[in-house]
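[Automated response] Your request has been received and processed.

Submitted sequence:
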Amino acid sequence: MMTRESSIKRVGIVGIVGNIFLLIIKFTIGFLCHSQAMIADSANSAGDIFASLMTTIGNKIARAPKDQDHNFGHGKAEYLFSLFISISMILVAFKLLWDSACSLIFGSNFKFSTILIIVCIITIIVKFSLFLYTRRLYKLHDSILIKSSMQDHKNDCFITLCTLISIIFGLYGIYWLDGIVGIGISIWIFYTGSKIFIESYNVLMDASIDETTKDMILELSHIYDNIKKVENIASAPVGYKYIVFVTICVDGNISTFQSHKLADDLENDIKKLDKVYDAIVHVNPV
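Generated structure:
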């Protein structure tokens, strides 16, 4: 089975190749047929190429081992580059919104062509295949970079389906729908980019570990009879995992050796949890 790092790298490379192919055919046909929806779709593919490139670079930096200057590794690079991806998506969304609104207000030169339908069908097939591929890898590795790519591929299937509908309506002379779909696509891109931005921002701002993992830590503490109480559980993210700080209360009459042994055992148990990078247990006597 591929490692987490090699899977993210593969997702980035496959995404770049697939989106370059789609960008070329969508922009060329959209420009020739004056389809604002198709041009918007091609701009979305350009954003996808940038996102895939950021995925590849972010993965390369994130997998670097810890060193003297970065004691807990470089895992946060994953979220930093996801932040770049989200900002690029939001900027693209605003540009597409402006262009589509202008097309709707001042009129469109959209020309129906059967080849537009063919391009949409090809795009949906390629993007759905990429979605299934990245979803399988995301289930294995739970990476925000893979998740960003997976959601992007899924969104693109929906976006291109909307583009296809607007093109079919163009066959019957309903050209104004082309601009409406362009606006809808831009709003969808903005929404997706905002979700990725918030998730990445929360990690970079040291959001706490989830409540489910906290409950699991509490359950582990209940195994030890000498632990009278868990006073506090704090955490700090290092990439997709967390350093966990736990304060426990123990009987003040037990020896220093016993209390330290208890802390070490609990630390080792906590480190076995999927989302934990390291654990530090502090002992208070009661």
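Summary generated for your ticket: The radius of gyration is 25 Å. The mean pLDDT is 82.
If you did not submit this request, please reply to this message.
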